[in-house]
Amino acid sequence: MTTELDSLARRLSVPPDRLAALAAYDGGQLAHLDTLLGTAMTQEDQAFDAGLEEALRFVPKLLRPAAKKLLFGGGHG
Amino acid sequence: MGDLRSRIEVTKLARELGVAEGEISFLTASAPEDLRELRRLVSGALFARNEDRVKLLAALSRMLPVPLTAKIAEVALGPALSARVAGVLDPREASRLAGHLAPSFLAKLAVSLDPARVAPIVRGLPDDLVVDVGRRLLAAGEHVTLARFVAVVSPDVAMGVVEGSTGADLLQVALFTDEPAALDAIARRIGDEVLADVIRAASAAHAYDAAVTLLTSLSAESCARLVGQVGVVEDNARESLVEAVAEHDVWPAILPALHTVDQDVLKALVNVPATLDSAIIDRVAMHSHRLDLAPVLVQLVLAMDDEHLDALRESSVLRDPDLQEWLTANAGVGTRLVLPVLESLGLR
To answer: pTM of the full predicted structure?
Structure first.
């Protein structure tokens, strides 16, 4: 298994042998796929960061502390 | 056709990653099954990444009145995140929430839904709402999304969605469907005229590989009905279709269906220039033998015009004594009919 395939497997949280079918691709192609997946994950994380903050704005004031604690735990400012 | 199926899977994977197909077009070198597995892994990894937060949002929705949750979904979260949350909601909660969401929003949300996760939810929604959303997806050209839900909704709902759609739409939805059985359930319910539209659409777009992919995804019965419509297209379109079948060597999927096809349609299919090639004739004869379809082989020969019968004389497979013995014994017509025909063709 190549380093690039190992990296992709780590990102997908699967053992590298689950990606054996991709072993024929060169390192550049696998690295590109890994980058695209990483970008998709980052975008999803950012969307959740923003979405949770935004959702809180719509919660009635009375419920907001409980909602904040639920969504962000005790440490959220 | 392996290429086409791989391209279809690349399209689906690109959507999962939120990138243009061109970014990962190199993956078309992979087998479609491998790409489907990769898509499943990507989908699972993306979902798992924020699963905790998805569950928290679902918990928040239970604290709030349903109309307010609907507003948060539409305005704060948007369709993609709402689709993630829908994946962990109880079907009854989701159904109540869906009733407060605009169908136009549900259509956008459906694009990001994972049908495997939300199947019980979709099945619990009112049929007219699902049909409304489905038609909006169709109008938006979201064939990939619709195709993913074909196996999730009932055939009645699927029919409600595709009612009045074009052959081109149906062809696209059919191509992207993961579940051939669900696709076949729809094909069984749509009329011959609609099937003819599908053939016309494939012809108009020169999408013969797509037509062949569809034919090989259907049951023999539905395949026969679809093949039965090839009379609606021009000679050159039939020629291209037969060439595509030959190129991908998918005769094993097509030949059983030809048994019930009208003789006039069979003549129109058989007597195209491509089938003057003795190599194609040999492949058909070989597959017919392998699949024990002697009556079909006889039907095909009987449908041939003189020019094609001349080409038949060049077949090496039909000269094989074992094949001739099998054909004579299984043709479903008397030995006295088969042997003279083989002799008159100079094959014995």
So the answer is: 0.84
Q: Nearest C-alpha of chain B: how many angstroms from A21?
A: 6
Q: How far is CA B91 from CA B51, B97, B120, B123, B126, in A?
A: 18, 10, 6, 9, 12
**Which of A12, A17, A18, A53 to mutate against chain B (most B CBs within 10 Å)?**
A12
Number of domains in chain A: 1
DSSP state of B333: S
**And the tokens for B96?**
């109540």
- Residue numbers in A near B27 (CB within 8 A): 25, 33
Cβ pair B109, B133 in contact under 8 A: no
Question: Tens digits of per-residue pLDDT, B123-176?
Answer: 999 999 999 999 999 999 999 999 999 989 998 999 999 988 999 999 999 989
Domain that holds residue A68: 3-72
Rounded to a whole number, what is the distance in Å from the CA of A22 to chain B's nearest CA? 8
Q: Is the ipTM of this complex over 0.90?
A: yes
Contact state of B29 with A21 under an 8 Å Cβ cutoff:
no
Decide if A77 is inside a domain.
Answer: no
Please say whether the beta carbons of B215 and B258 come within 8 A: no
Q: Which two tokens stand for residue B183?
A: 């696709």
